[in-house]
């Protein structure tokens, strides 16, 4: 490990030294992007230091992902493009077409480099990384001057990384713990950037709390008395929901115990992510850059642990899978909560604007940076009250004897939140390969989330449904799920 750390540090220093960008007054930007971190089940609670730190910044209360699964959500975040503009019916990375030059030229790190930033990426990027992790002639990751990118998933020891195009492997010693390795290399990059006096962007993406959520050995005994939250929709039989949900058998006590054990390990694994935040802040303070740095904290999607009898995973359109934290701390922000709606597709445009750039017209997302600023005079029509959802089934996926995904679990939807409405509307489709969003769905769901925060009562087709609202949401949704670029993809 000592030799790996030294080699990587030398590579980081060399990458920064070769940068042609002169020092300036640009703010540094750090994105902490966790894997499977929910908000509705208390997924942020174990990160006590990060919670306290970010409480002095701004929070977007209604922040959602556009798709509740890893690779599509990460593709959306990296490019500022909706999943439908990366969708392929011939495989890809969970239906995302990412193994091509179009994707590689769309990674927003390139935009930050053009703005004068030294850029670094550490941890998980996508689920499919074969072209970057090949033992022979691996591709270099575009958009990042320095990187330590995970090549394998679902384990926290004995990992393989691509470090600036060279493969390295770690072992089973405590210092090989995945989150610690990611954190240490992030710190090396940040310190080298600070020493060089150059503005930097650090994309820190731990694997935690993704399964198996292996905790660091020094945190393995924490939270031993905790259980997954028994929310009202825990082990609830929702017979009026779509087929995957209404067909679920009861969650047995043994299956509940498995979910509880995973809940504890998820929390334990996040303690090491919290340690990264502590060390990053200490480093910024050492170089007097804490007040000149934006720190953003979010996740690729939420999670479920017994909700609607699903033992674990994501893949559903409900708030426990869609709603994730978005907190930001940095110069010029209006502290406190912000009620507008934003989503993962907006993250790259927002970071570009924070770095002083103009959002490219080809991006689908819109920056909400101006809405966060204390001196913002953004007109009311720039605030947003809705976001769209897209999901293509992964087929028959089983967890603990429960089907958490099926071929009929392809859907599009919309999440609406404003002063008068708080709704979730979803349309389900049968055939992932042939389905076109212009077709008519075969099942529908509508929830009044203000009255039904756990989405337990489907109002679609009942006297309680607002048919005019349904029509409006349907028409808006079908325009958004084929849109492309800033002009077509509305706020």
Automatic annotation (TrEMBL):
This is Sulfatase N-terminal domain-containing protein. The modification 3-oxoalanine (Cys) is found at residue 70. It comes from the Eukaryota. Gene3D superfamilies: Alkaline Phosphatase, subunit A. It comes from Amphimedon queenslandica. The conversion to 3-oxoalanine (also known as C-formylglycine, FGly), of a serine or cysteine residue in prokaryotes and of a cysteine residue in eukaryotes, is critical for catalytic activity. Its cofactor is Ca(2+). Belongs to the sulfatase family. Residues 1-17 form the signal peptide. Pfam families: Sulfatase.
């Amino acid at each position: 490990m000592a030799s790996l750390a030294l080699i990587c540090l030398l590579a980081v220093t060399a990458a920064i030294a070769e940068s042609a960008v002169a020092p300036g007054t640009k703010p540094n930007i750090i994105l902490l992007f966790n894997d499977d971190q929910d908000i509705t089940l208390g997924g942020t609670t174990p990160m006590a230091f990060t919670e306290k730190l970010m409480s002095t910044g701004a929070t977007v209360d209604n922040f959602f992902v556009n798709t509740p699964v890893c690779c599509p959500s990460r593709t959306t975040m990296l490019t500022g493009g909706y999943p439908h503009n990366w969708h392929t019916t011939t495989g890809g990375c969970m239906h995302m077409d990412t193994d091509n030059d179009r994707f590689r030229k769309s990674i927003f790190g390139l935009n930050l480099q053009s703005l004068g930033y030294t850029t670094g990426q550490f941890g998980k990027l996508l689920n499919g990384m074969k072209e970057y992790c090949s033992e022979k002639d691996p591709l270099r990751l575009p958009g990042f001057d320095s990187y330590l990118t995970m090549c394998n998933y679902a384990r926290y020891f004995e990992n393989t990384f691509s470090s600036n195009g060279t493969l390295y492997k770690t072992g089973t010693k405590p210092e090989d713990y995945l989150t610690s390795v990611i954190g240490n290399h992030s710190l090396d990059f940040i310190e080298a950037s600070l020493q060089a006096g150059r503005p930097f962007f650090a994309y820190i993406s731990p694997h935690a709390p993704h399964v198996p959520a292996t905790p660091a050995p020094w945190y393995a005994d924490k939270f031993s008395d905790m259980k997954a939250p028994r929310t009202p929709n825990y082990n609830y039989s929702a017979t009026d929901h779509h087929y995957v949900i209404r067909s679920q058998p009861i969650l047995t006590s043994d299956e509940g115990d498995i979910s509880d054990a995973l809940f504890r390990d998820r929390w334990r694994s996040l303690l090491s992510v919290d340690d990264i935040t502590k060390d990053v802040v200490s480093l910024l303070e050492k170089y007097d850059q804490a007040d000149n740095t934006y720190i953003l904290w979010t996740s690729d999607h939420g999670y479920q642990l017994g909700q609607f009898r699903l033992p674990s995973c994501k893949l559903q359109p409900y708030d426990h899978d869609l709603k994730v934290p978005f907190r930001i701390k940095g110069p010029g922000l209006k502290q406190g909560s912000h009620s507008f709606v934003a989503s993962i597709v907006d993250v790259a445009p927002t970071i570009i604007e924070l770095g002083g750039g103009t959002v490219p017209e080809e991006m689908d997302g819109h920056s909400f940076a101006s809405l966060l600023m204390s001196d913002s005079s953004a007109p009311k029509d720039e605030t947003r009250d809705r976001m769209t959802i897209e999901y293509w089934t992964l087929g028959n996926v089983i967890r603990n004897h429960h089907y958490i995904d099926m071929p009929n679990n392809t859907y599009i939807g919309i999440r609406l939140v404003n002063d008068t409405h708080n709704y979730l509307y979803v349309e389900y489709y049968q055939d992932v390969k042939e389905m076109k969003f212009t077709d008519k769905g075969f099942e529908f769901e509508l929830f009044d989330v203000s009255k039904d925060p756990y989405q337990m009562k489907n109002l679609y087709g009942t006297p309680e449904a607002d048919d005019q609202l349904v029509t409006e949401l349907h028409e808006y949704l079908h325009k958004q799920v084929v849109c492309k670029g800033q002009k077509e993809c509305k706020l």
